[in-house]
């Protein structure tokens, strides 16, 4: 018994010493950061995140970390993506170009458009930062896939440490349920393991300014997260969209990503109310899971003293239907697919915590971030800077926002694909 007591006491002492040493290292890292100088940029992309957050007025969702961040930042209530699909939305964001200036506006946008964009002399905004002396780092889903990584843009492309099978591989994909919570730690999932790597990397950054792009995969399908995030919710208390009746002659969106790529559907499919509840429960759990990871990163930024000279952006690559218009998915020109999350904080922000109803677009982030860091963006990109809205949220802002939705039907040889163009105006 005495031996066990001594062993436990020794282990406890070593644990306390390790915690003290870690605290000392964090304090020293904060002291060593140079004051002033070009601002850093922490850009956090969140896949398929519509404004389903407490700070956007959604009462049932549990998103305390992002909500707290919004209180110190500028929340944009009318931010519209350029295209409601992952690849094209991210390509438009990173290049500042709308689909009218690109030949491809689907998930193959990076593969099909890179050469076309380079011929015009337009590089991504991470490349602009790299050329200006920034260390540019990328981890997670920033483009659309490993094969789509932007050349010349990154000083380092990071991978989450260790093995963390997030059940994301495509083998047996149709046999997987669309929503599931397993009793596993956060780091057993890709986004949790990635967060550990981000924190470790932040602690080892040098004196040069950095542009750090962090891409979370949730709440993209499958709606899989640790069980504890599912347990935050009473599924019967989650509000559901009005399912409605199918018209006699519908232009029908089949929720193909969900229904064709994942299994375990009930016989009635989406006509089953219990299944729709299960799906929205899974989406909510994934939002809370990612919210917790973002909170860990933001806490580390503050602990290191980086918040005093770091611009932080939270961006959703597009929205998602959770039953509205009888759809579970994106790829539409409805508000639910085109409106997404945008929250920006600058070190010297005026009127923090106030939201703005001004219309802004994802392509506007390129020139905005460039000008915030005293860099000159290309003259012929389509994005428009919104620095004035960061100073005064009451300004009217741009008169319109344009979004595109590519037709998935056949294209005629030698002719561009057809697009649905969606216009939002201030009035």
Which features does this protein show?
12 helices; eight-stranded mixed sheet; Alkaline Phosphatase, subunit A; 427 residues; alpha/beta
Structural account:
The chain is of the alpha/beta class and 427 residues long. It has a single domain (37-425), classed as Alkaline Phosphatase, subunit A, CATH 3.40.720.10. It has helices spanning 2-32, 64-70, 86-95, 109-119, 125-131, 190-204, 227-230, 256-261, 273-303, 335-338, 365-372, 387-391; strands spanning 40-46, 74-80, 135-140, 156-158, 179-182, 210-216, 223-226, 310-316, 321-322, 328-329, 342-345, 355-361, 400-406, 419-425. Strand 9 (321-322) and strand 10 (328-329) form a beta hairpin. The model is unreliable at 1-34, 109-113 and 409-414 (pLDDT under 50).
């Amino acid at each position: 018994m005495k031996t066990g007591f001594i062993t436990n006491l020794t282990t406890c002492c070593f644990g306390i010493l390790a915690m003290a040493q870690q605290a000392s290292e964090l304090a020293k890292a904060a002291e060593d950061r140079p004051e002033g100088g070009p601002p850093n940029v922490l850009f956090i992309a969140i896949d398929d995140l519509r404004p389903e957050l407490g700070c956007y007025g959604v009462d049932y969702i549990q998103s305390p970390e992002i909500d707290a961040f919004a209180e110190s930042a500028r929340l944009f209530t009318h931010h519209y993506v350029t295209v409601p699909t992952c690849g094209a939305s991210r390509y438009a964001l990173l290049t500042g170009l709308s689909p009218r200036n690109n030949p491809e506006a689907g998930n193959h946008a990076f593969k099909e458009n890179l050469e076309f964009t380079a011929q015009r002399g337009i590089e991504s905004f991470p490349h602009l930062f790299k050329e200006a002396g920034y260390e540019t780092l990328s981890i997670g889903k920033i483009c659309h896939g490993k094969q789509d990584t932007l050349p010349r843009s990154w000083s380092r492309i990071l991978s989450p440490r260790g093995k963390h099978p997030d059940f994301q591989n495509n083998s047996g994909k149709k046999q997987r349920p669309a929503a599931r919570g397993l009793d596993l730690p956060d780091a057993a999932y890709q986004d949790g393991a990635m967060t550990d790597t981000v924190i470790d990397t932040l602690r080892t950054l040098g004196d040069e300014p950095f542009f750090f792009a962090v891409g979370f995969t949730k709440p993209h399908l499958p709606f899989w997260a640790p069980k504890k995030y599912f347990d935050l919710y009473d599924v019967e208390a989650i509000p559901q969209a009005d399912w409605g009746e199918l018209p006699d002659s519908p232009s029908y969106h089949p929720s193909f990503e969900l229904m064709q790529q994942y299994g375990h559907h009930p016989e009635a499919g989406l006509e089953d109310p219990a299944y729709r509840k299960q799906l929205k429960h899974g989406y909510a759990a994934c939002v809370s899971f990612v919210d917790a990871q973002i909170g860990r990163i933001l806490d580390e930024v503050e602990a290191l003293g980086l918040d005093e000279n770091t611009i932080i952006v939270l961006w959703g690559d597009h929205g998602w239907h959770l039953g509205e218009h009888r759809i579970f998915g994106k790829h539409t020109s409805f508000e639910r697919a085109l409106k997404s999350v945008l929250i920006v904080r600058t070190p010297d922000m005026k009127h923090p915590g106030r939201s703005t109803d001004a219309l802004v677009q994802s392509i506007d982030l390129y020139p905005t971030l460039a000008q915030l860091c005293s860099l000159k963006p290309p003259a012929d990109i389509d994005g428009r800077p919104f620095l004035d809205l960061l100073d005064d949220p009451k300004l009217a802002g741009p008169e319109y926002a344009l979004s595109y939705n590519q037709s998935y039907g056949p294209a005629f040889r030698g002719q561009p694909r057809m697009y649905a163009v969606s216009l939002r105006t201030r009035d």
